[in-house]
Input
Amino acid sequence: MYISARERQLLEILLTEKEETTVKDLADRIGVSGRTVHRDLKNIEDILMEYELALQKKSGVGVQISGNPEKIRQLELFLFNLFHTEYTPDERQTIILCELLETKGPVKLLGLANDLNVTIATVSADLSKLEDRLQPFGLSLIRKRGYGVELEGDEAGKRRAMRNLISKYLDEAEILSMARESIKKRSTQHINTISERLLGLVEKKKLLIVEKIVESIMQELPFSMADSAYIGLIVHLSLAVERIQKGEGISINHSYMKIQQSSKEYRFAEKIVAQLEQVFNIKMPKAEIAYITMHLKGAKLRHDHEYLIEESSLQVAIKAKNLIDLVEKRIETDLSANRSLFEGLVIHLKPAMYRIKHGMGISNPLAEKIKMDYPELFLIVKQAAEQVFTKYHVPDEEIGYLVMHFGAAVISRRESANFKTLVICSSGIGTSKMLLTRLQEEFPELKDVQNASVMEFKKTEPSDFELIISTIPIPDYEKEYIIVSPMLTRGEIAKVRTFINKYKILNSSKKRFAFPLEEQANLKNPHNFIRGMRTLQKYTGTIAAILEGFELAEIRERKTTEEILFRAVQGLAEKQTVSETAAIVDALIRREKLGGLGIPGTSMALYHTRSHEIIQPSFTIYSLENPIVTAGMDGVKMNVKFLLLMLSPQESSEEALEVLSHLSSLLIESKESIALFESNDEEKIAAYLSSRFKEFIDGKIKHIRSV
Output
């Protein structure tokens, strides 16, 4: 029985989907017209008849394969074992690219044509299309008559292309399973040709060894990594070892190397490299350590309670605010008061901006589906991102995650009741937020919902949750949980509803307890509670110092920036907030020379530094009757009427830095907050800060209670 490549694609989609699929959806997913799909579906009906199956058609709803589950399984196995004598254009180009990446030197077009069972003209046409796919990686093709075709570009670009291919065609759960040796042997079945070819880029045994090394080092990291970032690092390291063993070296700019060496992530990268060198008996260049450092810096933070602690947090907040402003104008919906959206974008954009700047890319298996399900919102967010990140290319995978944040903000505002739930997502906080919002929209009783990655799930106590929902299979976990897609289909909603109803009936006896079960559970682990209280003490101590030391002073004389800073710091020295004035002023001036401190779109500039001469954290505002001119964070000169001064001791705790970072985000959270900080009203600003810090602490207390 002959099945064309396009018919095989359609069958694979229909067999995968549990709900009806529209002809338009099918056409969009394989890149053809609706008329072509209608024509192919007639042939598919003939194929289905041989397996005693039928193509069920519902007008206005879509099409779906129906019949005996055993017959459906037989068809799936047939397609799985089918020898691919015909490939789709995308598959052909991927196979060609794999061959070019693995081969050092030219590849003959005739050899490629024979392998793919097509003409040389077809291979030539595929190569032309392939050139567009290579541009983002800084790669190109050398094509000469009689010579063949060769991939040209540096080693870093080739590795990025390899990682991109693996993340595009291999599911994260599949890579995780493979790394942990949980893929079942398929001795009688052929693995999908594309997957088989891509897995050839990374040796399975090597991947497993690297995974064990990375997992041990990850326990020491001061932050969490999303599974996508964790897997990306493992794949990167496996490719690095493979390429070094083949004699392919990588280089990096010397000045950029020095920047990486000064970061805390570099120390962890050194530990990883030391173990890799020992295990594989190789010598890895320092450039490899720098690239590993980039991966660690580009890791996506997982939790809403993990705020940004670097000084660049305000610049990230400005980008988030600009995105919200642009999107809300296009969709004609007020999003300025949605604090969850703002904070979620800030958390996501910190590592995202790093990835975008360095062209690292990220895997987003939902990108294509998001494009199809939310085409208008995707286009609006994409255009907004292009306006905000004018100097850089933002890939569709990153846009997809941003769409999730905005989609979650627009979908639902319902309050929910109490039903403690753990949601496990592999693709980062954007996916989690979308799923959490959909769950709370459909099930108001899901009030206490937390999210975690598969890696973090190991550290949790599953019995603390009434319901566990995951977007991927959980390795080595045998108890009951529900697997859903981040978009939550009708069938999945029914499945969750059935579980909740059953749980309520079976556990109704819990009502006899005099206090909530979650509080009782917390009493079982007093060490967590004590640790939480110690952490809370660091937060409240920092907040108290800031609020007690806050003041708004007016400076009427015409002075230079350095004179204003000297007067401001001298005033803090008199209050014993700092121990030495000149050194701190010098540090502030040096910081200004590194980049603008003016906040674009306002008349404020935020001067900040950390120093051994600073005794306790402080935040003060100086209203200037005679404005000063300084560079904004966007590099444009601006008039500054309000000089904001934020100081922190050199050895501040992460909790203290988190409070200051949160404060910097409040400055430009909304038009109202900007107006308030420019109001010259010390009493109102102090009241606002007190109110917002109270909310901040309430959130921390809630988190401590849930641990």
